[in-house]
Design the sequence.
């Protein structure tokens, strides 16, 4: 199967980190990017892998969430514009100097 994105939008940063941990342990996926909205009340996780892995990862995140999963989805064989949007989002974290991380606001 080809490249896919698995998306989970969940309430709260801690719940999102728990969901991401479950996703990465359940399937062969990796974090593509994440977004935080409404002051961190909504966190969207985007993982990438093959279609079956993304489906399994999303199911794992939804199985026993700490807080409510607001939305979820799978994008199989994403259009290049979707890939570009994910790459733009992820670019905030790539090629950064993390030596001064404690003085930066990423979240």
Sequence:
């Amino acid at each position: 199967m080809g490249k896919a994105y698995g998306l989970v939008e969940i309430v709260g940063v801690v719940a999102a980190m728990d969901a991401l941990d479950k996703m990465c342990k359940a399937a062969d996926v990796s974090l593509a990017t994440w977004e935080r909205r409404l002051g961190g009340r909504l966190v969207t996780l985007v993982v990438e892998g093959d279609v079956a892995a993304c489906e399994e990862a999303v199911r794992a995140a939804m199985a026993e969430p700490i807080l409510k999963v607001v939305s979820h989805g799978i994008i199989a064989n994403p259009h290049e514009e979707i890939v570009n949007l994910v790459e733009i989002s992820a670019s905030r974290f790539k090629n950064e100097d993390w030596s001064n991380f404690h003085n930066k606001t990423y979240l």
User: Anything to note?
Assistant: The helical segments are 13-26, 51-63, 80-90. The beta strands are 3-11, 30-37, 42-50, 69-76.
